[in-house]
Design a protein that fits this description.
- It contains 15 helices and 24 strands.
- With 519 residues, it is of the alpha/beta class.
- The protein is globular, with a radius of gyration of 23 Å.
- Helix 3 runs parallel beside helix 8 and helix 3 runs parallel beside helix 15.
- Strand 4 and strand 5 form a beta hairpin.
- Helices cover 29% and strands 23% of the residues.
- The longest helix has 22 residues.
């Protein structure tokens, strides 16, 4: 169900870049939530509906649907934020706008497969970390986000190619009908640069309006959390305020949900590293785009070309650690991924733009080294892929190339700085011999996770089973930082389910001790 942020709601949304109300600093809020993406918005709505007075701060601006112009480069800069891992080896993409990453995601709703939950339960020691125990929270989110199973009748040529690829690999059962956060769609295929039609389910048209309806939520945009102010207490350190630019915002509880780098950065600047150090065991779950040139048009000039992904090919996720789906086609990204070609050949490829298909690949990684640290007081990810990660990338490239050639592709373009020329089945063997590392690949991540993993004991995780940061009384985490390892699929639904669970437990535990006051 799409909900609108009304004029009344806007009276509770302020920008720190202009003149935030002086009363913001004079109030002791029941909770301060940092970040307005899938984790922060769900936590804020759950707490506000429970009668808590909530302050939500977001580093980005409020961009209403009318601001979405479907221009790739313009929207990418307005809505997102690009960072690099140490050594500039991989690009990290995150939302920097009210609604966070939900404004930019492809609106695909997925739950981790059972083998991922089994791994999480083993690593964390938390038995309830499974699909059955989390089902009520998934269901709650699903209802509010209008999670809708796609229909085969929506298949366009790009999706048909993905279906045919599964058949070519002898794995038709590995093709799943996707579910998306939308009950209606115009089919422009441009979900990842903001939906100007406001038909994609985001936090701005779901949980934030729900929270604003209560009258208990105040939102402050253009405001980046820097560090928590803490004091000693009987059960560990107690946070009393968050410093956000020139503001000092006081609250009884704090929920960090700004994404792995910002969340871990706040904890590190606050020196809340004990007894378990934050920032370790971070996964990128990187993506890349594979393009293929066909004899017949895949898209039609000047027309909307349908829902970008109605299938997920997950048949190789457990065995080979990858999955893929059909992607939207953008001239700017195709030009970038084929920039290694000589100028005349590059021009010929670009002239065949509508004969191209695009497939987004996703790797479930298990890095050799991954740690967030502070560099000039800003969080930075020091990351090194494992041999297993490279094997997964290589297997994905080989399988995708073979499948695309088998279904009629004339040429396959791999996301590498210097890719091999793949036009015949015999060319695929070249991929198996080529040296590979992330600095030779064109990969990016908007599924970064970890750094504050859930754990039953301090040696298992930075946070306890309900997201409380160990060594603190009142600091919780509610974003993908909680994941013990990469979830393997689109993470937003799981982030929202965990956030709902954490916020409900926070309300229950607070009510069992003493009622929250109003200041």
């Amino acid at each position: 169900m799409i909900r609108e942020i009304t004029d009344t709601h806007r009276g509770h949304i302020h920008s720190a870049a202009s003149s935030p109300p002086a009363a913001i600093e004079s109030v002791v809020w029941d909770a301060c939530v940092v970040g307005s993406g899938p984790g922060g918005a769900v936590a804020a709505a759950t707490l506000a509906e429970a009668g808590w007075r909530v302050m939500l701060i977001e580093r980005g601006a409020f961009r209403p649907p009318a601001d979405m112009n479907f221009q790739l480069l313009d929207m990418a800069m307005r809505l997102g934020r690009l960072e690099l891992t140490r050594g500039a080896r991989t690009t990290l993409h995150s939302g920097s706008v009210l609604g966070g990453g939900s404004v930019l995601y492809g609106a695909v709703a997925m739950r981790p497969p059972s083998f991922v939950f089994d791994e999480w339960a083993t690593q964390s020691g938390i038995a309830m970390l499974n699909d059955v125990a989390l089902a009520p929270y998934y269901d709650h989110v699903g209802r509010h986000m209008s999670v809708t199973r796609q229909a085969p009748r929506l298949e366009n040529r790009a999706n048909a190619i993905v279906r045919e690829m599964a058949d070519a690999l002898g794995c038709p059962d590995g093709l799943e009908i996707a579910a998306r956060y939308t009950a209606g769609c115009r089919g422009t295929g441009l979900c990842t640069i903001g939906c100007g039609f406001d038909l994609k389910g985001t936090m701005v048209n779901s949980f934030l309006p729900i929270a604003l309806d209560t009258g208990n939520l105040t939102v402050l945009t253009d405001c980046e959390a820097l560090a928590l102010e803490t004091s000693e207490s009987g059960a560990g350190r107690r946070a009393t305020a968050v410093h956000a630019g020139s503001l000092r915002i006081r609250a009884r509880y704090f929920v960090l949900a700004a994404g792995p780098l910002p969340t871990n950065g706040v904890l590190m600047r606050s020196r809340l590293h004990r007894p378990s150090p934050a920032g370790h065991c971070v996964s990128l779950q990187p993506h890349g785009l594979i393009y293929a040139l066909f004899d017949e048009p895949v898209t039609t000039p000047g027309e909307a070309n349908g829902v970008p992904a109605i299938y997920n090919f997950t048949g190789m996720l457990q065995q080979r650690r990858y999955y893929w789906f059909a992607s939207s086609l953008h001239p700017a990204t195709l030009a970038t991924y084929t920039a290694h070609l000589p100028a005349d050949e590059h021009q010929r490829v670009m002239s065949r733009f509508h004969y191209m298909s695009a497939v987004t690949i996703t790797i479930r990684d298990a890095p050799a080294k991954s740690r967030i640290g502070l560099h000039r007081d800003a969080p930075e990810l020091d990351f090194e892929e494992s041999c297993g990660d490279i094997d997964a990338v290589r297997r994905c490239f080989v399988d995708a190339s073979r499948a695309l050639l088998a279904v009629g592709a004339r040429r396959v373009f791999l996301p590498m700085l210097q890719p091999p020329r793949v036009e015949q089945p015999d060319d695929v063997s070249t991929i198996e011999r080529m040296p590979m590392s992330y600095d030779r690949l064109l990969l990016y991540s908007d599924h970064t996770s970890g750094g504050c993993a859930l754990g039953a004991r301090p040696d298992r995780g930075v946070t306890d089973a309900y997201g409380r940061v160990r060594g603190t009384e009142n600091v919780h985490v509610a974003d993908s930082s909680l994941f013990p390892s990469a979830c393997g699929v689109a993470p937003s639904w799981t982030i929202m389910a965990l956030s709902r669970m954490i916020a409900l437990n926070l309300v229950a535990s607070a009510n069992s001790t003493r009622p929250l006051g109003r200041s």
